[in-house]
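WARN retry 2 of 3 for item q-0093 after timeout on previous attempt; input resubmitted unchanged.
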Amino acid sequence: MTAPEPPARFTPVYILPPSSRKLVAEEVNRVREVERLPAKRILSSPSGKQIIDFGQNLAGYVNIKLAGTKGTKIRLTHSEVVGQDGELDTNYLVPLPWLLKPKAEYDEVLLSGELCWFHPWFTIHGFRYVEIDGLDYKLELDDMQAIALSSDLSPVGTFECSDSRLNHLYRNVFWSMRSNFTDTPTDCPTRERPGWTGDLQVFSATATKYVDSQAYLRRYLRNLALEQFPDGRVPPVIPSESSDFSGGISRDLGDLENYIIDSGFHWGEWLRPGEGITSIFWSALIPKAVVATAYFAQSSYLLSEIATILGDEQNASRYAKLSEKVRTAWRAAFVQDDGCRI
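OK item q-0093 returned
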């Protein structure tokens, strides 16, 4: 701004009244560039688009060299999959692609007429492939890079063995963690991106073997405590939406039926390997009690252990007994006398 007087649309500043909220300093390192990946190959789709393969799923964005006529619109569409037909596939982003149109992650660029390097700001994509639509020339491998973003967590361990499959598995887990540890834990960097409490509960111990995640995980737990409901329930995701569960079972278990969770909505046992979309929706509509009840037993056991560490003997005993009753109920409801699952 070079004018001697400010524009008329500018108004004087004013001081806001003091806020009752307490400002706290950020507890974890910032999200930053953690690696640059070169393009591995450039595919040509049957529809004539160029598809860049970076050889690795990641969370981040693309830095790409572009040139062309001023005003030309270029679209960069991101995906983790290329279909058998050779086209970029985004149908996996929704459960019913023939009914619900997938919302692909894309950036649009209006060319200035001059050679430039472009990358987006204030966004993050999950991808391995990027489809380039609108260019009238062939790209070279040196014309682009994938910039991986993640919270800046220091590594604490490595793993390598003589079996290449295990080494590959270790790398896959590392990249999954890196792509989902972007400021707050998420379930995936492509689709809904919520911080599912169940996902992190399963993975948190593994994360500590890869990176120094103590402050990162404690910050998440403090956020969880802020979102916890007055009756003690924990939301399914942080930031929260809602959660509900209750008890009861159709089998005659006597008093043990009070320790089985089989009504109200819960995530239960679904998304098992090999299950199709029909099984997933059926499991969501009619939740199964087997997994929810098992977690009930485990959660009460953990509360007993926590109470013991805190020196609260009364609650340690209370939750230990509760856990044992839930375990007994689970076996009565879901395991036959010969050990087979009902």
